[in-house]
Amino acid sequence: MKTTKAGALAVVAMLLLTLSGCANLGGIDLTQVGKEGTTTYLKIALNQTESHPSYIALDHFGQRLAEKTNGRWKVDVYPNEQLGSQQEVVQFIKSGAIEMAIVSGTQLENLSKDFQVLNLPKAFKDVRHQMQVIRDPSIVGELFTSLEKRDNITVIGGFTQGSRSIYTRFGPVNKPADLKGKKIRVQESDMHIRMIELMGGSATPLSYGEVYTALQSGVLDGAENNEVSYLTQKHVEVAPYWSYTNHLVGLDYMIMRADLLKAMSDADRKIFLEEWDKAMVEHTKLWSQKTSEAIEGAKKAGAKMTKVEGDAFDKALAPLVDEFLTTKKQRELWDKIQAAQTGASSSGATNSEADNSAESEAKNEIQDSRKGK
Ligand code: GCU
Q1: DSSP string of 235-261, one letter each residue
Q2: Please, are residues 353 and 244 in contact by the beta-carbon 8 Å criterion?
Q3: pTM of the model
Q4: Best of 161, 195, 253, 286 to mutate for ligand 1, by most ligand atoms within 8 A of CB?
Q5: Percentage of residues in the chain with pLDDT exceeding 70?
Q6: Main-chain dihedrals φ then ψ at residue 333, nearest 5 degrees
Q7: Residue whose CA lies nearest to ligand 1 atom number 8
Q8: What is the mean pLDDT of the chain?
Q9: Which atom of ligand 1 is nearest to 86's Cα?
């Protein structure tokens, strides 16, 4: 469902009331959800535009959910950070003011260091490997439910961010030395700050919505992201030099109120998780297509997209794994993720143009353990 600006402002006003200690106006009544003759609206926060694959897949998810439940469950997607930055919406879910949000893996690192494992460069060989892992409860089941008790947040899966590369205002980057003294935006994560340092740059953490202006004004010399964000956020206009460092296959999570998932009837939860699973598959298919379109679009908008020198960045990043895998639990999770690579495609997130192997990973049939619980 498309949301108007006025509608979003009304929600934000409700959220502010909620957070300032008034009655739980923004949240939903868990005793009523799913009842015949009622409609429960699930507010989903997103920081992308309406043309981004995540918005499209969420919109379709909402349509299917409403159809399958005769309108008892509906979805309102709020794009463009209308409900706040990712850091803010995590707090809104914790307080029960909103129900669901797509947030980058880096945000969950700040709640539990175990999530760092999946945010490490080279955690995933490619998108197919990544989707295989996050849909396999024997690998991520414990991690995804680990925030439920303390934070009332559960993770039900996610969307790929594809392969991320560096782009700058000043010119192509071939090797780590080219980033010396350059201010490169990173997400709010200690590990990603270190990642940019190892890649040769000076890391500047900033929220997504602030990157365009910071690039435009010269506060930043560059940033790193995927081609879809590069185009949809219009960063190409202000930082036209794209260099294929392909340093990371990033991951967005779908997080939601844990008490809400529990409050659903078994039948509704089954429908909900099945439709969400289809959303992940649709998103993965769309990702491939939208990435190709974004590359074309960026080039038309003036981007100069170049390869980097050999494996210089891979080598520079090699120490990061040992620096950040500090506990036995993290190491075990890392090992399980790496062992799952056998089924992944061989294209890999190497220093070539985008990894477009998404078509086949969409057919991945691994079931979520919570399906039909
Ligand atoms: C990607 C990702 C977002 C994230 C953004 C960022 O676009 O999908 O969830 O917020 O990168 O770099 O902040």
Answers
A1: GGGT--EEEEEEEEEEEEEEEEEHHHH
A2: yes
A3: 0.90
A4: 161
A5: 84
A6: -65, -45
A7: 161
A8: 89
A9: 10
Q: Is the pLDDT of residue 288 over 70?
A: yes
204 lines ligand 1 (CB under 6 A): no
* Best of 220, 229, 230 for a ligand 1 pocket test (most atoms within 8 Å of beta carbon): 229
Closest CA to 80 of 161, 167, 159, 8: 8
Return the number of other C-beta atoms located less than 10 Å from residue 347's C-beta: 16
Which pLDDT belongs to residue 353?
36
Tell me how many degrees the CA angle 278-279-285 measures, rounded to the nearest 5: 90
Structure tokens at 51: 């043309």
Task: Tell how far the Cα of 250 is from the centroid of ligand 1, in angstroms.
Answer: 8
Q: What sign does the CA torsion over 135, 136, 139, 143 have? A: positive
Distance separating the N- and C-terminal Cα atoms of the chain: 28
Q: Which long-range contacts (CB under 8 A, 24 or more apart) does 15-24 make?
A: 15/83, 15/84, 15/92, 15/97, 15/98, 18/95, 18/96, 18/97, 19/91, 19/92, 19/95, 19/97, 24/96, 24/97
pLDDT tens for 303-337 read 999 999 999 999 999 999 999 999 999 999 999 99
Question: 130 in ligand 1 pocket by Cβ < 6 Å?
Answer: no
Q: Cβ distance 163 to 255 under 8 Å?
A: no
- Provide mean pLDDT across the span 227-254: 98
